[in-house]
Every structure is written in C-alpha cells, then in structure tokens.
Design a protein that fits this description.
Structural class: alpha+beta
Order of helices and strands: EHEHH
Number of strands: 2
Radius of gyration: 18 Å
Helix content: 25-40%
Strand order of the largest sheet: 1-2
Distance between the termini: 50 Å
Shape: flat
C-alpha cells in the first residue's frame, strides 16, 4: 500500500528523524515530504500540500481516476442571539 508522509521540517512536537523519517524507511512503498519552515499540524498550515499528498497516494495506488479530494471551507454556524445556561 503506498503511503505519502508529510511533516513540518521545523516540528518541535515530534522528532522528525526518530518518527516520520524512520517510519518512511520502514515502509517500502512510502514517499517522504518534509516541508521547510513548517512546524506541527501541517494539515492546518499547508492544506494544498496535504491535498497533493493525498492525490499522490491515490495515483500510486492506481486509484487516481476514482479518487478526488474536495476541500470546502467550513461554513460558520449562526450563533444564537443569547446564551442561556442550563
């Protein structure tokens, strides 16, 4: 199964070499992308790169014609006029 891993090169929460890069080396069908200047939670910081990684994984699995990632902005919910505690 193909795997595409993304990590923030400047992540201070996890050790990129001990975790992400090591896992990449253990999975034969993996690709590793380290995003320079980014930290933890790259899905919030580089959503376009995450979409490309998902598309790449689909391509590697042969499912690229069947799989498409669609990202929509969250629609803010209307806030109630008053908050009444229960």
């Amino acid at each position: 199964m193909p795997v595409v891993m993304l990590t923030g090169a400047d992540d201070q929460v996890v050790d990129v070499n001990r975790q992400s890069r090591r896992l990449h080396e253990e999975i034969s069908q993996s690709e590793f992308v380290s995003l320079a200047g980014l930290v933890h939670m790259v899905h919030r910081l580089a959503s376009d790169e995450v979409i490309r990684a998902v598309d790449r994984a689909a391509e590697l699995s042969g499912a690229s014609n069947q799989t498409r990632v669609v990202v929509q902005e969250a629609v803010p919910q209307k806030q109630p006029d008053q908050y009444v505690p229960a």
